Amino acid sequence: MSRNITIVVIILIIILLGTYLVWLRDKVTNQPEPTPSPEVVMAPSVAPSPTIAPSPSTEASPSASTKKEATKSGTTKSASPSATTR
Q1: Phi then psi for 10, rounded to 5 degrees?
Q2: What is the pTM of this model?
């Protein structure tokens, strides 16, 4: 008889433990949602970005260097090789 009582007690403990776990799961998952507080949404502002403008220089320009060479030699470059300035 003692063995039967032990089996019944173990079954009751398992049922009690299962019931507690189900109750605990319901308690955890059914928590009231916190009311969302109104948030201030800021519009994105466009900040001007600094731009770097190229500085004019005669050293960096390839067309300026060809003009200097043409004036030094006394000839201008043209499509026909026979055309020279005097």
Answers
A1: -65, -45
A2: 0.35
CA distance 18 to 23: 9
CA 11 to each of CA 21, 22, 38, 73: distance values in angstroms, whole numbers, following the listed order: 15, 17, 52, 113
4: its two tokens: 């039967």
Do 85 and 76 meet the contact criterion of CB atoms below 8 Å apart?
A: yes
Encode pLDDT of 70-83 as tens digits: 555 555 555 666 66
| 77 in Cβ contact with 66 (< 8 Å) | yes
First to last CA, the chain: 135
